[in-house]
Design brief:
This protein has 144 residues and is of the alpha/beta class. The chain has a 5-stranded mixed sheet, sandwiched between helices. α1 packs across α2 and α3 packs across α4. The longest helix is centred in the C-terminal third of the chain and has 25 residues. The radius of gyration is 14 Å and the shape is globular. The two termini are 18 Å apart.
Length: 144
């Protein structure tokens, strides 16, 4: 089954999906944030549409490993998503965290190296960060 990854930010949520064999990650979209309930609902639409059995959410810890204010917001989003999924009969889908420290920095570096303009980078950086989160997660699974 496919895995879905999320890079949850204040303004947008980057979305990526794995192939059916869980080997590679591809960017899907960037969701503009409206409100936590509607955002969780939109994520659920992608889970259904893409046929995913796991959601991987990037957890933005500080470099020293402690929680940041953004970490708390991501915990809150995960709780909302779990509750909505449970009440919609999707409680069998796993939701896991993956340490996302520096993924946005790495995503920007990848996009700069690909000669993507600053304006376009801003539109796709969260999707690229979700790809890096998912690829890291997939790589950690294959290393087990």
């Amino acid at each position: 089954m496919k895995k879905l990854a999320l890079d949850v930010g204040d303004k947008t949520i980057g979305v990526a999906v794995s192939d059916a064999l869980s080997i590679t990650a591809q960017g899907v979209t960037t969701i503009e944030r409206i409100g936590i309930r509607k955002d969780a609902g939109k994520v659920m639409e992608y889970i259904n549409e893409l046929g995913c059995d796991t959601v991987v959410i990037g957890l933005p810890k500080r470099l020293d490993g402690t929680d940041s204010p953004q970490t708390e917001k991501v915990y809150e989003f995960k709780t909302m998503l779990e509750n909505k999924m449970r009440s919609s009969g999707m409680g069998n889908i796993a939701i896991e965290f993956y340490d996302e420290r520096l993924t946005t920095v790495m995503a920007e570096k990848v996009l700069i190296e690909a000669d993507v303009s600053r304006g376009k980078r801003k539109k796709v950086i969260d999707k690229q960060a979700a790809v890096l989160i998912l690829q890291g997660y997939l790589d950690s699974l294959s290393g087990q």
